[in-house]
Amino acid sequence: MQDCKCESGMIAVDPGHAQDHAPVRAEGKMDQRNRRILIIDDNRSIHEDFRKILVTGPAQAELAALESRLFDGAPAPATYDVDSAFQGEEGYEKILAAVEADRRYALVFVDMRMPPGWDGMQTIEKIWDADPEIQIVICTAFSDYSWEDLLARFGAADRLLILKKPFDTAEVCQLACALTEKWHLAKHAHLRLSQMKAMVAEQTRQLSNEVREHRRSTERLRISEDRYALAAAAANDGLWDWNLQTNKVFYSPRWKEMLGLGDAISDAPDEWLDRIHPDDVALVQANLQAHFSGQCSHFQSEYRIMRRDARYCWMLCRGLAVRDDQGRAIRIAASQTDITDRKVAEQQLRHAALHDALTGLANRTTLMDRLHSNLHRLGQYPSFRFAVLFLDLDRFKGINDSLGHLIGDELLVATAARLGNCLEKATESLEIEESTLFRIGGDEFVALLIGLPNDTAVSTVADQLQAALAQPFSLHDHEVFISCSIGVALANSTYQRAEEILRDADTAMYQAKAAGKSRFAIFGEQMHATTMARWRMENELRGAIEHEELILHYQPIISLASARVVELEALVRWQHPQRGLVAPMDFIPLTEETGMIVPIGMMAMRMACNDIRRWSVQLPEFANVSVGVNISGKQLLKHGLADDILQLLLDTGVGPHQLRLEITETSLLERDAESMAAVNELCVLDLRLQLDDFGTGYSSLSYLHRLPLDALKIDRSFIASMDADPINRSIVQAIVSLAHSLNLFVIAEGIETPQQVQFLRSINCDYGQGFYFSKPLPAPKVAEYLISQNRPQLAVGA
Q1: Which helix (H) or strand (E) holds 136?
Q2: Cys staple from 6: which of 173, 538, 632, 696, with CB 3.0 to 4.6 Å?
Q3: How buried is residue 113: exposed, middle or buried, by Cβ count under 10 Å (0-12/13-18/19+)?
Q4: Cβ atoms of 250 and 333 closer than 8 Å
Q5: pLDDT at residue 622 above 50?
Q6: Cis-peptide into 577, omega within 30 deg
Q7: Number of folded domains in the chain?
Q8: What Cα–Cα distance (Å) separates residue 124 from each residue in 91, 92, 106, 115, 151?
Q9: Angstrom distance (rounded) from CA 413 to CA 727
């Protein structure tokens, strides 16, 4: 850049402080123009060059002052306030701050290339977003963007110039001087324009007042002016003007057009009032009277009015009355606006808020409102009867998962239609006052029966609803069967809140499901007591987990050939602080329902591993005796189960051969693909897997072939009935033969008699477990029992 003395003034600057981004100001008296300039360039030397051109030191300032005195008051040089930014983002922030502080920049020099941040084009767009009036000079040494590119992106503008690098200092001075002056002149012009607009507005107002005063000179002009002003104040739509003294109404052409009327109507008020919907007339008249009496400052009313084609449309009417000196209304002018579309939209929104989007049935919000109103009615009339039927579709999730959500949704719509039709017929035939079907979520429906002739009618309706679903649904070439479980709650004076009766119907529905599905149950006090007991047990169970009240007992598994312990099965027991030892059958099903089985299962596995480690130290001769822990279906499907077990083995120092997992058939078959994947992950850890309760599930040979099992456990129900039922003996023998053909060991559960042992040995069953050998033992007793196995072998029966 060539050296050139800038005629823009003398400003002192310390080059070493340029990096602080601090603006540099001129010494001496500043003129009133905005000379603030921002340099945006990633090259620090460029900023120094600009300052050498636009900013001068004290010596030059003194020289300029001397020149002014020598040449008899020569004009003072322009002074610039120069600021720096080294990236587009930083420059944008400075401009935002300047606008916020009302100290705007007049001019920005912008480099086109500033890696790694915004380029010049993006920076310019951001700058003009922040300050549309700022002048911009593009500084570039490249031909990345042609002038045509700039025009295409920014359009033709007088705020954008290009300065090619290397700079000519004279050009920089000229641009700085001219563009800051241009910014000042534009500001001055805008100010003058605003002043002129204000003057014009004031003169217009004065002229309007003069015209208004002139119009008041005649009565006719006054009436015309008032009619226009009042109608315009009300609304700019269909207008009417009612002279209350003559009882005549002026209806504008637009007013008539909105109702499809021609000119052949009279000027009577009845042309308007007689067309209003009968249900809305009283409200309109009340609103008019309230305005006439001074209770409301304006008349406003929404109503339906009949068109010429006999269709009703919604109108919003707003008006204002003219009063005499005594304050009595003598005229009223108003407008009417067609709000039919708005009313339809509001109705749709109300419908959507109170109805299910899929089936169109009323939703939970509407149900709760209806329950509340009917409970209120019951309080006033004790003989009034109503009931709530809570319906839940059986096995809907399986249909939804297997056939897809589209068919699942269609099934819900078809089910709603069929239940609705059935409910309508039942209501008529049983002389029920009213019935409504609701969908409250998922596959849950509620039928509300109001005004029952007797309590037995509820059972009849429940039977008919279930019969209605007995016929299959034909959906996309699929024949789908569905049923429902129904819980019934009969309203009585003990119910105070809508939530209570719905809760009890829900409780009864779960009782129906537990009893075998596809049936109904009526809520009773015993059911409530059972529910409360279940709720208390659930809370106590959560406390039991927290306070470590769950313990393990171990039942030995004996080799039928040697009569020695080969394995132990870990069984969870609950050491209740008040009730003592709680058996698994009393709480394990609840843990399955609530999902607590997952943390309990992992806790049991950890306790078992700790016991295994302790016994391995105390009884090294029994190190090969493994411990089996039951894995529930929910735990099997828990993400990361294999990783958790691996970490547990590492933490406790237990080998995979010392731990085996018992999995039931049902848990494997519930979600086949996911269960198989989880089992395969466990096999990678070299854990032994046993199929528990074999024979109680599907007992599919294909599953036995596919699963990486080590043994089958024959369910105790088959063992217990072997003595009295030859068929069961044959089943047990078949299971043993099948297992051996698949290279699987067989464990018989529930052995209690010598005869059972003798038969199992005769068919080469491998292992046995049951009270005949030992009841489940607490952990401290296991070591003693194992030591006893070093003595002569157990007599297992002749």
Answers
A1: strand 135-140
A2: 173
A3: middle
A4: no
A5: yes
A6: no
A7: 4
A8: 10, 9, 14, 15, 13
A9: 48
How far apart (Å, rounded) are the C-alpha atoms in residues 366 and 371? Answer: 9
CA 506, 508, 514, 517 dihedral sign is negative
- 134 token code pair: 């700022």
67 has a pLDDT exceeding 80: no
Mean pLDDT value across residues 690-695? 81
pLDDT confidence of residue 16? 38
- Determine which of 20-24, 25-29, 428-432, 638-642 has the lowest per-residue pLDDT on average: 25-29
Which pLDDT score, from 0 to 100, does residue 505 have? 94
DSSP string, 151-214: HHHH-S-TTEEEEESSPPHHHHHHHHHHHHHHHHHHHHHHHHHHHHHHHHHHHHHHHHHHHHHH
Q: What are phi and psi of 177, to 5 degrees?
A: -70, -45
pLDDT in tens, 471-491: 999 988 888 999 999 999 999
Strand partners, 321: 332
Q: Which of 73, 76, 94 is nearest to 20 (CA)?
A: 94
User: Is 10 a member of any domain?
Assistant: no
**DSSP conformational letter for 140:** E
Decide: 249 and 268 in contact? Cβ < 8 Å.
yes
- CA angle, 49 then 55 then 56, to 5°: 110
Q: DSSP code of 276?
A: B
Q: Tell me if 144 is assigned to some domain.
A: yes
Residue 26 has pLDDT above 70, yes or no: no
Q: Report the pLDDT value the prediction gives residue 433, as an integer from 0 to 100.
A: 94
CA pair distance 682, 692, nearest whole angstrom: 16
CA distances from 772 to 158, 556, 568, 657, 751 (A): 104, 11, 15, 27, 6
Which neighbouring-strand residues pair with 565?
A: 558
CA-CA-CA-CA torsion sign (491, 493, 495, 496): positive
pLDDT tens column, 77-120:
667 889 999 998 998 999 999 889 888 898 899 988 888 889 88
pLDDT digits (tens, 9 = 90+) for 255-310: 998 998 877 789 999 999 999 999 999 999 999 999 999 999 999 999 999 998 99
- Judgement on whether residues 128 and 268 belong to the same structural domain of the protein: no
What is the rounded distance in angstroms from the CA atom of residue 238 to the CA atom of residue 334? 8
Q: Which residues contact 710 (CB under 8 A, 6 or more apart)?
A: 660, 688, 689, 690, 744, 745
Q: Are 322 and 459 in the same domain?
A: no
Domain that holds residue 508: 357-523
- The pLDDT score that the predictor gives to residue 627 is 93
Q: Is the pTM of this model over 0.70?
A: no
Distance CA 719, CA 735 (A): 12
Measured over the CA atoms of residue 36, residue 41, residue 47 and residue 50, the dihedral's sign is negative
Residues 499 and 602 in one domain: no
